[in-house]
User: What shape does this take?
Amino acid sequence: MLVLFQILFVLFALGGAFGVVTKYKSGVLGTKGAIFWFCFWIVVIGAVIWPNGTAVVAGLFGIGRGADFVFYISIAVLFYIIFTLHIKIETVSRDMTRLVRDRALESKKK
Amino acid sequence: MFIAIVPAFNEEVHIAFVVRALLDYVDEVVVVDDASCDRTASFAQEAGATVLSHEINRGQGAALQTGHEYALYKGATYVIHFDGDGQLDVLDIPEAKRVLDFCGVDIVLGSRFLGKDANIPFVKRYVLFPLGHVVNRFFAGMHLTDVHNGFRLFRGHVLDKLVITHDGMAHATEILALVKHHGFSYQEIPIHVTYHEYGQGARGGFRIVKDLIFGKFLS
Assistant: This one.
């Protein structure tokens, strides 16, 4: 029987999966992105309903507990996401600077 | 043609004085107003400067690069970076130009540590600047007596390759890295700096290092 925490997590993950489908249909999310995020939420639901399943995967990587495995993977993924977001922000910032500069020079170059 | 580039952000107190003083030594003063909230732009214009206005604040590095592009467009033969806060002394310009011509170098860099008195705050002189030396060595591969000095005189053709991509204060280290990368010759000269305000502290220093590290990952 599912405990309250599992029910809440499953509902949250279902919401996430539903959001992926909605974003895909509206064209915000591409096919590859949609498949990745949909699979991600399915894996989350699976891990919440069958917590022992993560222990099996963790064992393959030489990690004792499934929860530890999820924790390590989460940290690594979060660091990667933060890094790529930072790079993206820097790139957008440089594009913005280029636009601001072009507008500043525009009047003087006429 | 000799152009002075003055990046300015909220410098209404000093900008007119700086522009008028510079006009005795250069042909054109370009004030790049980095979205100031005060009357920097109008004061600079009234004093006789050409004003380029950033609609959004982008940082000192971005302002200098805007000035570079204008100088290249105008075909400037000499370009000088000069702070808008009135801390630098225009009397150092003739000596810088003399060294540039006499020594035949591409760039003359100002230094606060080569003889002239400078009332540099204690923490800056003995903590931040030594750390800055280490950062410069690591990221620019150059050893200068003064790591972040706003006084720089260039031959015009240098600007074509000296493209600043760091919008913030990390541009000072980036400029040195570009000087080394392109093999430009340079000479440091003593200049006089009068501190009206503290400027950037340790927090700014950390930000520079952070920008330099992340800048390595961008093309």
In short: The longest strand of chain B covers residues 2-8. The two ends of chain B are 33 Å apart (CA to CA). The longest helix of chain B spans residues 122-139. Chain B touches chain A through 20 residues (CB under 8 Å).
